[in-house]
User: Fold this.
Amino acid sequence: INSLISITACFVSAALAEYLGLSGVYGAFLCGFILGNIGPKSSLLAFSAPLSGTLMMSFFIYIGMLFNVRFIMNNILYIFLLVICLTIVKFFINIISLKILGWKKRIAVESSLLLTQVSEFAFVLINIYALGNNTNPNFINLIISTTVISLSVGALFIVSIKNIIDKS
Assistant:
């Protein structure tokens, strides 16, 4: 019954967030955050794992269908410039934030290097933005392309950084 109550709470939170002008995804996230921190996490995770995998697969199929290879080929330099700029800006924001929190310089730099890629959450944000606005499709393609390339390059970057950290 805990599982049924949890899934109901998730849907109610999503609907309430939509009603308040926020996104249903955000409402569901907040509900999951709250449930994960007040209840028996292991039973909730066991219940939601199959559903989570299916929903995640559906989400990335959707993103894959939005991914426009022709747009990337026509704008490759602009997209890579944007990826590089975002990576550098995120790197320095992370270092500054971690140093303010009192982290040692080496740990702050290593952690910042591992956190430089654009997050998958960008897909959620651009989807929410596009639903509520009459948005230029090129802008949507730019954000999706930048995010996909950042995630792809970021995965290789993370493996390289981990190897360097392990050797030092």
